[in-house]
Amino acid sequence: MVIHLIDGTYELFRHFYGLRRFHKTDPPFGAVAGVLAMIAKMIEDGATHIGVATDHVIESFRNDLWPGYKTGAGIERALLAQFHPLEDALAAMGVVVWPMVEFEADDALAAAAYLSANNKRVEKVCIWTPDKDLAQCVVGDRVVQIDRRRNEIRDELAIKAKFGVASEFIPDYLALVGDAADGYPGIKGLGAKTSASLINRYGHIEDFPAEILSSENRLLALLFKDLATLRTDIPLFKRVDELRWKGPTASFAAVAKKIDAPRLAVRVHKLKT
């Protein structure tokens, strides 16, 4: 079987701003309808096991570790108002959804990928997000990252070609170069090429010789690595069969009507008949 893991928060953003290019106003649940239609298309194309991770709240435990870590500041009200309705609509559609509170959606994707890959019946795990954090989860060509925006499938060789380091070193790499999207700056003076070179020579930051980083920068780098390291020990499910799509619930027609996508209800119900 193939497991499909979707970054629901990213897809909500993508559909929200995609609709903006064609509408003068924001449809109240337009992005929600877009995400559901995308998943319906995946099921039409043969996807059977699907899990969607969302950020139920924007902040996480990482905000306690680093004061500059990303928050919900700046997210438009019309977009933020669709976060929880997306989770409700996915559940009504019969799709497994993991709303994250203490952790982030990225952590849920990492944990789900880890749990899925441990099952011998799983042939491939596809993580649908362009987020560079998830590159650390890629294993060979069995656990891959799919960037829908660039229409790319990234296996372990592709990750190495893109970042200059193997997937297992992505947290070290991000710690050194920083991640503006997540709100931590990295180590001053270390760019992408230098960071990759150091990692390829010495390995993990913990194994760097003392002269490579000052004591202050070493502590910062280890803190940033902690921020960049996705948690894989979240008990999201016990069996991968829990991710099998079994069809919409009885409430889905009403939900589809609420998000102004009544045709979607007909489309989804046909998929299960």
Summarize this entry quickly:
The protein is α/β, with parallel strands linked by helices and 273 residues long. The protein has 12 helices and 6 strands.
Task: Write structural notes for this entry.
This protein has 273 residues and is α/β, with parallel strands linked by helices. The chain folds into two domains: 166 residues, 5'-nuclease (Rossmann fold); 66 residues, Orthogonal Bundle (DNA polymerase, domain 1), CATH 1.10.150. 44% of the residues lie in helices and 11% in strands. The protein has twelve helices and six strands. The chain is globular and about 65 Å long.
Please describe the topology of this protein.
Blueprint: E1 2-7, H1 8-20, H2 30-44, E2 49-55, H3 62-65, H4 77-80, H5 83-93, E3 96-100, H6 105-117, E4 124-128, E5 143-147, E6 152-154, H7 156-163, H8 170-177, H9 192-202, H10 215-228, H11 252-258, H12 262-272
Parallel strand pairs: 1-2, 1-4, 2-3, 4-5
Antiparallel strand pairs: 5-6
Helix pairs in contact: 1-2, 2-5, 2-12, 8-9, 8-10, 11-12
